[in-house]
Amino acid sequence: MIGNDVIDILQSRKESNWQRKGFTEKLFTIDEQLLISNAPDPEIMVWILWSMKEAAYKIYNRQTKIRAYIPQKLVCSLASQDRGFVTGKVVCAENSYHTQTILVEDRIHTIAVSILEDLKQVIEIENKSILKDENGIPYLDNSITNRIQDVSKSHHGRFEKVVTISAL
Asked: Is the pTM of this model over 0.90?
C-alpha cells in the first residue's frame, strides 16, 4: 500500500504559523518536538514530520477505513538525513509505515509504504483515469493486469503528486 504528501513551502508560510503557541504540542509527540527544536531548520523539520504523518495516514485510512484526526497517534522516527533526503518510519497502533522524503527548494514530498521494498517500486503517474471508491480512496483500474491498483494523490499550493507502486 502507498501514501504520499506534498507540501508547498511558500504556501505553508502563508497558511500556517507553525510557531504559534500550542501548534507543535497539538500535532507532535514529545520526541518529535525535540527533533523540531534541535533541527538546524525547525520550520523544515515541522513540515517533514507533518508530511510523514499525512503520507502514512493515507495508508492507515486505506487499511482501516477509519477517518480521524489523529496526528499524535502517528508517531514519526527518522532513520537517516542526508542533504535533501530523509528516510524514516511512522507507527500508528500496530501498523508501521516506511517513509522517504525528498526536499527540493520550495517543496517537500514524502512517500510512505507498508512494505519497505516497495519504496524501490514507486512511480509517479499522471492524474488520469483515477477513480475513487465509496470511501473517497483513490485507485487505478488497471485493464492490462485486470486488477485494481492503489494510488495516492496529494496536492498543495503549486504542486501535485500522484504515485503508485509499479506492477512489474
From this structure: yes
